[in-house]
Specification:
Blueprint lengths: L7 H4 L17 H21 L1 H33 L3 H29 L1 H20 L4 H29 L3 H32 L4 H20 L13 H23 L5 H23 L7 H5 L1 H31 L4 H7 L1 H22 L5 H15 L8 H28 L7 H35 L6 H33 L15
Helix pairs in contact: 2-3, 3-4, 3-6, 3-7, 3-8, 4-5, 4-6, 4-9, 4-17, 5-6, 5-8, 6-17, 7-13, 7-14, 7-16, 9-10, 9-17, 12-16, 12-17, 12-18, 14-16, 15-16, 15-18, 17-18
Length: 522
């Protein structure tokens, strides 16, 4: 008995000779913790040493998610013929993904903050690849819809974890600007890449390869991520706001479904307005909840910062307006000018090239010196001009004389928007909020795209219907009606970008980027 000191070492943590401080194998808990920390430090050091390879891994994963939004559109006609589903059911291939992805992004981002960015990234990557494999092997419409919904679920984990990893990997201002320039270029150009890749795969292989191709991206990203990426839990972990998660997920689900329903039916549908109003109410309750809870799902300090708030608005509006290019110009090229899917994809490459160059240049050379105000509002203006220019197309327009220039102007504008906005949307956030701040970026882009798709489709359909009223439905009249619907969509896309000029011009502050939490309300 006299050998027991009864001191603190015996009470729990400092004894290195055995007892309560030792594990089953005789090794002290403190020793194991030290070994784990040393292992994490090695991975962190490796991530810093190879951070540009980390960017390549993250960019590959992000490209897989972004191009999936358009590559499946190219595959749909062939999939419909193969699986035998109706035109009415075709929309569910798109909607299933949009509903799961859009409604779960905030929760996926918070999981990255709670569980660890690397494990959520890897889980999302493996799950997205598995869902893609199931979708590619689908033997029925129902199997394909379930696979697309699963893609959305795992994509909602993957996308915010990827962006938060980028945020925490690149902390030097100059390197961060360059990294976000590349990331923004990938995010902005991924839709056009999806059109081209989808055309090639559908024409030369099979529609199923539009889903199987994700396995290639996933394997490349998985090998790199497992070795290079660090991403343990933040030192200060937020709690999980379950009521807030339910309100946010339900609200976003209702909003996305409401706009999708408007596209399939009509704006006068009671179901459409029921979901939209219900979603708005749930999101309002979510905001009220976040103001009062100790551990909010989305801390309001993240979105009320002027530069971040302006960036979220910019991403939302650009996501909505950009569909005027990708969606309706695709229709025009294929249905009016008779382009093949591959030729259509190639037609977008000059715009993609300008977008990539501008994204890298402005975020690397301009944004650190000026902040986003001299970039994003003018980018909105250029994009609005490009969309307005496209309204001059007719039934016999040529690519070189009438399409190329407005595409280049639009790409120039979008290159000024996405990369700076992505950078500022996550700049200065606390480490424990990096995941949810990144999720807000993806949520704004996804919901913006859903709103843009449904709104522009509805307006275009109404315009085409009204055009043929009182006219004989000849082939020429129907072609003119179709062209008129595209023109209306281009005008509305231009208006969306013009609204972006006003809002971002009012919200963004002049000056270099700072990390101070200056509220939008001030």
């Amino acid at each position: 008995m006299k050998h027991r000191s009864g001191g603190p070492a015996d009470q729990g943590g400092g004894d290195t000779s055995g007892g309560r401080g030792a594990g089953a194998g005789g090794q002290p808990d403190g020793g194991r913790r030290a070994q784990r920390e040393a292992k994490h430090e090695v991975v962190r050091n490796r991530a810093q040493q190879h951070r540009w390879w980390v960017l390549a891994v993250i960019g590959t994963a992000q490209l897989m998610v972004v191009l999936d939004a358009t590559i499946v559109n190219i595959a749909l006609p062939s999939a419909q013929k193969d699986l035998g589903f109706s035109n009415g059911n075709r929309q569910w291939i798109i909607t299933a993904y949009a509903l799961a992805f859009g409604s779960l992004l905030l929760l996926g981002g918070r999981f990255a903050d709670l569980i660890g960015r690397k494990i959520v990234f890897l889980t999302g990557l493996v799950g997205f690849a598995a869902a893609s494999a199931v979708g590619g092997a689908a033997q029925s419409f129902e199997m394909l819809v379930v696979a697309r919904a699963a893609q959305g679920v795992f994509g909602a984990m993957l996308a915010p974890a990827a962006l938060s990893l980028l945020t925490t990997t690149f902390t030097d201002a100059k390197e961060r600007a360059k990294a976000f320039g590349i990331y923004g270029a990938v995010a902005g150009a991924g839709g056009a890449v999806g059109l081209l890749l989808g055309g090639v795969l559908t024409e030369y292989l099979d529609w199923r390869w539009c889903l199987y191709v994700n396995l290639l991206f996933a394997v490349l990203a998985l090998v790199g991520a497992a070795r290079l990426i660090s991403g343990g839990r933040p030192a200060e972990q937020p709690g999980l706001d379950l009521p807030g998660a339910v309100l946010a997920t339900g609200g976003l689900f209702c909003i996305v479904y409401g706009f999708s329903n408007a596209e399939r039916h009509h704006w006068g549908s009671s179901q459409t307005w029921g979901f939209l109003v219900g979603g708005a109410v749930l999101l309002l309750l979510f905001v009220l909840r976040e103001r009062r809870t100790a551990h909010p799902l989305l801390p309001l300090r993240v979105v009320l910062h002027r530069q971040r708030g302006g960036s979220y608005i910019a991403i939302f509006l650009a996501g909505a307006g950009l569909f005027g290019v990708f969606l309706f110009l695709t229709y025009y090229l294929q249905q009016i000018l008779g382009y093949s899917p591959i030729k259509t994809g190639l037609a977008f490459l000059p715009m993609v090239g300008v977008m990539i160059v501008m994204s890298v240049v402005v975020t690397n050379a301009v944004l650190p010196r000026t902040g986003p105000k001299p970039l994003v509002p003018p980018g909105m203006l250029f994009a609005a001009g490009g969309m307005a220019w496209l309204t001059g197309l007719d039934l016999h327009s040529s690519y070189a004389a009438h399409i190329l220039a407005p595409l280049l102007l639009t790409g120039f504008g979008v290159g000024l928007i996405f990369a700076p906005a992505f950078n500022m949307a996550t700049a200065g956030v606390r480490p424990q909020d990096a995941g949810v701040a990144s999720a807000m970026v993806n949520t704004c882009q996804q919901v913006g795209g859903s709103v843009g798709t449904s709104l522009l489709n509805t307006l275009a359909t109404t315009a085409a219907t009204n055009y043929v009223v009182g006219k004989r439905p000849t082939k020429l009249v129907l072609a003119q009606a179709q062209l008129h619907s595209f023109t209306v969509a281009f005008w509305w896309s231009s208006a969306i970008f013009a609204l972006g000029v006003i809002l971002t011009g009012l919200i963004y502050r002049w000056g270099r980027p700072t990390t101070g939490d200056q509220s939008i309300a001030t």
